[in-house]
Design goal:
Length: 130
Amino acid sequence: MPFILVSQLLTYYDMKTNEYSILKIYLSTTDKFGSKLMYEHLVYLAKEKNISGVTVNRGIMGFGMSSTHVTTSRFWELTEKLPVVVEMVDKTETLEHFYMLIESDLKNMKKGCLVSLEPVKILLLKPGEK
């Protein structure tokens, strides 16, 4: 009997740790959605759709699907084309629905991008004071 309880507990634990995910969208600072920057479009749309949290990180150096050249933020270079990662954390199901909403926007971009969805274990979820 105790084995069944431990087994049930482990199953419950696995369900709780996989309940939340992180959606990562790798873009460039120059990617556009109409006249708006793509990362801004994604942040405002995520806010509108009540995604729990979104962060945009600008890289200082990188390359990928949108460029075969290494881009860097060295002060003497004129380009502002840098890598950007938009990270969203929420319930897995919510992020899957959000991705379905933005998939065509991403596919219609002129340059490339990369999107991943990974399970995440939430260690602390503390709301701030208002």
